[in-house]
């Protein structure tokens, strides 16, 4: 005779069912609440939305946006900071509810999964770093047009620069921001030429390493 188990006949059935249900949620970390974008990330998103026709490469433009953010007045930063604070408060509430739903066993599983994912990401980054450090023949990434400008300006106008590195960066960023597109163009061209060479060199490097 086969007995049909129920939560009444076996109190552990209900708890086990809940535990397995919680663990199934944990196995997919993507179901956890997502951290909100930082104030700077929201600023970048807004800036990118209005520059679809930009000529500057995205990587270089991100460097430029970083410098612009540093120079931005606190009053202009405040809307982005306020949005982040509001979104972060909501995230914390959702995260607490998510953890409470998991229960002790589910929470341990979730923490382990997060740790494994973080460790895998770090290992991947370390492998990439070690590969670059291990092989001196690997082509070096070219400087962005902004850094080409900085290098040239420092070489030709060292006496005009502030003593502190942070102040130098702010000063150079301000100069770059005030330059017209035509003034920036030769630095952009230099970067694009160097980038094309880097791409070719990397292709040859990868081919030689796979042979």
TrEMBL record:
What the entry lists under InterPro entries is as follows: HMG_box_dom, HMG_box_dom_sf, HMGB
Annotated GO molecular function terms are: DNA binding
- Indicate yes or no for the key word Ligase: no
Keyword Nucleus among UniProt keywords: yes
In terms of Pfam families, this protein maps to:
HMG_box (PF00505)
> GO CC terms on record?
nucleus
Annotated region of DNA binding = 33-99, 139-206
**Keywords recorded for this protein, A-Z:** Coiled coil, DNA-binding, Nucleus
The signal peptide here is none
**SMART domains attached here?**
HMG (SM00398)
HMG box domain span: 33-99, 139-206
Annotated SUPFAM superfamilies: HMG-box
Give the superkingdom in one word.
Answer: Eukaryota
Coiled coil ranges (UniProt) are 81-135, 177-208
Which PANTHER family does this UniProt record tie to the protein? HIGH MOBILITY GROUP PROTEIN DSP1
* Name the UniProt record assigns to this protein: HMG-box
Phylogenetic classification of the source organism: Eukaryota, Fungi, Fungi incertae sedis, Zoopagomycota, Entomophthoromycotina
């Amino acid at each position: 005779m086969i007995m049909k188990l129920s939560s009444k006949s076996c109190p552990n059935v209900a708890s086990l069912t809940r535990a397995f249900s919680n663990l199934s949620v944990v196995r997919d970390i993507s179901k956890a609440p997502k951290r909100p974008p930082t104030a700077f990330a929201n600023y970048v998103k807004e800036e990118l939305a209005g520059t679809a026709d930009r000529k500057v490469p995205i990587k270089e433009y991100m460097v430029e946006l970083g410098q612009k953010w540093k120079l931005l007045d606190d009053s202009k930063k405040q809307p982005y900071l306020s949005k982040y604070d509001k979104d972060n408060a909501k995230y914390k509430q959702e995260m607490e509810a998510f953890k409470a739903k998991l229960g002790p066993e589910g929470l341990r599983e979730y923490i382990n999964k997060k740790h494994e994912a973080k460790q895998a990401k770090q290992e991947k980054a370390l492998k990439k770093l070690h590969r670059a450090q291990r092989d001196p023949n690997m082509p070096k990434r070219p400087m962005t047009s902004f850094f080409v400008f900085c290098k040239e300006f420092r070489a030709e106008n060292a006496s005009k620069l502030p003593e502190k590195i942070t102040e130098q960066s702010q000063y150079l960023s301000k100069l770059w921001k005030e330059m017209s597109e035509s003034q920036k163009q030769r630095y952009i061209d230099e970067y694009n030429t160097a980038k094309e060479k880097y791409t070719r060199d990397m292709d040859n490097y990868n081919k030689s390493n796979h042979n």
